Amino acid sequence: MLALLVAFVVAVVLAACTEPEDATPTPLNTDLTVGGSSGAPPELQYRAPLDVPEATSEVVWPGAGAELVDGGPLLLNLYAQDVSDGTVLQNTYTDAPRWRALTDESIGRDLRDLLRGQRVGARLLRLEEDDGVPVALVVDVLPTRASGEAVAPVEGLPTVTLAEDGAPSVTIPPETTPPAGLVVQPLVRGDGNQVEVGQVVTVRYTGVRWSDGDVFDTTWADDTAPLSIMIGIGEVIEGWEQGLLEQSVGSQVLLVVPPDLAYGETANPLAGETLVYVVDILDAQFPVTAEEAAEGGADGTGPDTTGDAPADQGESS
């Protein structure tokens, strides 16, 4: 019999199969409880030092989205504490979620086994000892593509078709003049929170030139991570700043960006071009400060998963 039984929260799955708005701890025992709401850092409650005699895993709440596929992509928020003293060892809520694959090589066998069969939206807990340190790891499973209500296409705009994995292909209407102003057209309307200024937004996107329909950039290529950027501080072109603001997480948005809201008359290879983007909004979160994350916060997730923002990109090779 385990000396340590981890309490966990089971969210009520409504008939609509939505993610939990809030998860109030309802512990089965008082050793450790995981609280906090969906989309926010977890709140761990326990009496330190907490003994972890052997590894255990639990579902804090189940997901209601797409089922995870072996070898498939993962977008994860990760939060880990040393439960001997409460030191935060890892917290992706301080910057952006991590891009991984459901393989032993990417995340290790134990975490792969924990995630196998789970669905997008799940929150999971693993307790184990790592090099003598007792660790509580909470994993939030985020979507890897847009999901929501399809929106009818608008005549005269570029058309978008999706591959089986969700990768978009864009067709520019022939013999048409590009719009003079910014066009923001949702293709899929997600049911998440709206994007706000100051949030770190994680997206997958494809960009094509209106002039010839050629792809100049995409995060849908093999081994390419989503892009995480902060809205409202000039990290991206103005067309993105305006076009993504107030869009719902989970949405897929078509942006037609005129030159003056893209690269204008700069030395960028895309200067003077009207650019068309299809953007899947996967996540939006306000970064947690170091004080809010408590002491520690060492990031042991491996290579950085952020890419070049559309404010800095040039011609793709």
From TrEMBL:
Region (Disordered), start-end ranges: 291-317
EC nos: 5.2.1.8
Enzyme class: isomerase
Residues in the signal sequence: 1-15
Highest taxon of source: Bacteria
Statement: the UniProt record of this protein carries the keyword Ribosomal protein: no
Annotated PANTHER family: 39 KDA FK506-BINDING NUCLEAR PROTEIN, FKBP-TYPE PEPTIDYL-PROLYL CIS-TRANS ISOMERASE FKPA
Keyword entries, A-Z: Isomerase, Rotamase, Signal
Annotated Pfam families: FKBP_C
Family per similarity comment: Belongs to the FKBP-type PPIase family.
Name of this chain's protein: Peptidyl-prolyl cis-trans isomerase
Reactions it catalyzes: [protein]-peptidylproline (omega=180) = [protein]-peptidylproline (omega=0)
Record GO terms (molecular function): peptidyl-prolyl cis-trans isomerase activity
Low complexity bias: start-end ranges: 301-317
Ranges for domain PPIase FKBP-type: 198-285
Source organism (scientific name): Cellulosimicrobium cellulans (Arthrobacter luteus)
